[in-house]
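User: Here's a chain of 526 residues. Predict its fold as tokens.
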Amino acid sequence: MANVVSARRLSRGGKLLRRLAMSMPVRRLVVVLGLAGLIVAGCEKPAQTPKNVHTRTIEPPASSRAGQGQSERREAVDDQDAGNSREVPAASLPKTEISPHLVVERQYRPSDSRPRHNDERLAHAGIRCFESKRLRLYTDVAPQLAEPLPGLIDRAYDAWEAYFGPLPPDREKRDFQMTGYVMVDWQAFQELGLIPPDLPAFSAGRHRGAEFWIYDQKDDYYRRHLLIHEATHCFMTIIPNVMASLPWYMEGMAELFGTHAADDEGHVQFRVMPDDPKKFAGFGRIRMIQEDVRAGRLLDLADIFQIASNDFPKMHPYAWSWALCKFLDGHPRYRQRFRRIQHEVSAQEPQADFDRLFAADWLDLRDEWLLFAANLCWGYDIERTVIDFAAGHELNAGSPGGIVDIAADRGWQSSGMLVEAGRRYSIHAEGRFKLAEVPRPWESEPQGVSIRYVGGRPLGMLLATIRNSTAEADRGACSMLATIAVGRGCELTPAATGTLYFRLNDAPNELADNSGAVRVVVAAGD
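Assistant: Prediction complete.
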């Protein structure tokens, strides 16, 4: 390329741009201006980017390049839709002037380099091909089991796009498609060259670029779960972001999308909370966490953040990664921040960036996470167990005391009262509420009903806990894990100063059919 561009050529370019400016919508004009700037500028030093325009270099991670070829580096406007092929929104530009220095280039995903197979030859060996828009599936499982699987991945692809945004196009303008292998007789796949000789060993599934391999499973649900899990990896590793540097996030999100439910009409929901061991046969994540909690291995956030990639041959890290992603994605206070972390996290300090995103309410997040994990069960109702961490106020001795109504269909609820260490308090509760509607209404009072127990205490019993508000609470375990049986009433002398919380005892997956409340009166002694 020549080092000097003639004045005549520049003049022509200026006339052309002025003519385009008069005839084009602003949104399309921005892209043309950026591309024209590259043509006219030649190899001269580019003008400085305006301060209000942010650019960054985006390159697909190594894992995707290995499976679908190299991709050139591209400059792209850094907005909330990182990962899309996009133009600059017209609303973000000055109304009367378009910066001539704005550079916008289209991003591309790696070209499709998947191997092509002789389908007729494979069919003679008992390995059939089932294909949809997003998946070419090779498998030796029964046809009636295999045939619906590609369509399931098509629906999952729509869910990924809705969540992460669309993938960039490839240069050939082809639809993105993966190749998957579901194997009963894995040795037959190996002998036919369908398993790369350098593919690392795996216990259930493995992905590489736009290909994935899974061993067949005895449970229909779990076969689909693994299929979606590995396909999610194929999609996520092509998104131009740096989330691969957070192993718990990558595996947790694959598990999160893998948890799915279908109705009788074929509609599929992804990212659901599993509610029935029979419907989610093979999904052992909840059981694994319950086992760890019973064994005293309740993982704090910092413990999960330290999970490394080489920890994942073990199944329990999958369970904890899924649980954290499910909690953050399902919690109304945290979900919006969680869903944009792919735009907020840098390659240099991914975990530190994640921490900063939640810094304003980190202690609330930590305590609520530990309460969620310690009580995790099938069908856990995240929405109804959300805690409003309202700080309490001191109660004066001799005053009428504090009064609060505690709803039966919620988890822990702040009393708005601060209790002090070593001081005596009396608590009294009264009222009637329902714990179920079917097969008939089941009523209770604050002492609970002893025909059934939850967590070792009567169903419906009024419980209390104290959220430690001293400096030690920032460094210690969640004080709200310790509960106090109140019933109709009790005398309380706290060991630590903090806000008093109440709830009516019920399982976190059975709150939706509760109704009513009890009134609690708290009085301070001398």
